Amino acid sequence: MRKRICTLLLLLTLCLAHAVAEETRYAQVFDRSQDGGKLTIRFLWLGEQVADDKPGDCMILTSPEGKVMVLDAGHPAATQYVTDALDALGITKIDYLVASHPHIDHVGGFPTLMDRYEIGTLYTSALTYETSSYYRAYVEAAEGIEHVLLHDGDTLMFGEEVRIDVFNPPETIDYPKDYPNGATQFINNQSLALKFTYGESTVMLAGDLYSGAERSIVERWGDALDCDIMKANHHGSNTSSSSVWRNAVSPQITFITSDTIEDLSTAKKFTRDGQQMYHTLLDGCVRVSTPGDGTYDVLTEKDRPSTLF
Asked: Against a cut of 0.90, is the pTM above it?
């Protein structure tokens, strides 16, 4: 009996130690003290599946001089993860609020952010989705906020030193005849495709593009898509990250944002030839930063529990 009690106490101690370690790592991931002079991206873990849907995507970016961008804000039921992260960072103003596309798992948290934080400018594509109550909710909440529509060929600056090139969607959006009925793929394919360039460092963030749109973008832009870092499109699903796209972007490091392994074979493609891959399911929240010289520092919230990759 005494031995069993000792074993249970040891297990409890280990579990508590592990929990404390993860809490400490979370604090480190969201410590801004070393962000100065760097382009920093934090890929958020947004919890498990919510309301029979994906919790979605959210990335918080800080420019070398401290400007803040939130790119997507997850499902409404996952918004607490976003506000917790912003609060941990001490953020009171979001200078750039960007919607990759208007699906619920990407813009569901926007009304809360618009209510809780000062918003500088809202950036979206011209795509409308009026039958979605969540699209209408954030558009209504955005009344009075400067709203900039982006399309391929556009460029803008994130702060003073980071250039953003827009590769998708096209300036003219041709809606299907019965839009938005059965339009999931169409909406995903209108995702903003954004390349961030800071000195010699480059990052590609392209929402939920499917392989067909990936091929079209490669045909239009070719070598201009080459980047060191990439977020896997559509949460690492086999609908996306085609060989054409992977070869064009040719990332050294890929990040997958999902509450599950959407497709194991797709995920494994990002670890070939010595490439690195991080996954929010396994790694929790992840911070990557660069001083603009083509080198990257990555910090994960968790020690990866799996050797699947």
From this structure: yes
The encoded tokens of residue 116 equal 């809780």
What's the helix, strand, coil split of the chain in %, to 5?
A: 35, 25, 40
H helix or E strand, kind and range, residue 196: strand 193-198
Residue 53 has pLDDT above 90, yes or no: no
pLDDT one-digit tens code per residue, 61-84: 999 999 999 999 999 999 999 999
For residue 70, is it left (φ>0), alpha (ψ between -120 and 50) or beta? beta
> Which has more confidence, 11 or 30?
30
Interatomic CA distance for residues 99 and 125, integer angstroms: 8
Cβ–Cβ under 8 Å, residues 298 and 306: no
Strand ranges inside 99-169, DSSP E: 118-124, 146-149, 155-158, 162-168
Radius of gyration from C-alpha coordinates of the chain:
20
Is position 4 within any domain? Answer: no
Q: What is the pLDDT of residues 155-167, one digit of tens each?
A: 999 999 999 999 9
pLDDT at residue 18 greater than cutoff 70 = no
- CATH number of the domain enclosing 242: 3.60.15.10
Q: What is the mean pLDDT of the chain?
A: 92
In a domain, 1, yes or no: no
Structural domain count, the chain: 1
Residue 162 lies in a domain: yes
Residue 106 structure tokens = 């990407």
Residue 229 has φ and ψ, to the nearest 5°, of: -125, 145
- Domain limits for position 229: 21-300
With respect to residue 222, please indicate whether it lies within any of the assigned structural domains. Answer: yes
% the chain with pLDDT above 70: 91
238: helix, strand or coil: coil
158 and 133 in contact (C-beta within 8 Å)?
no
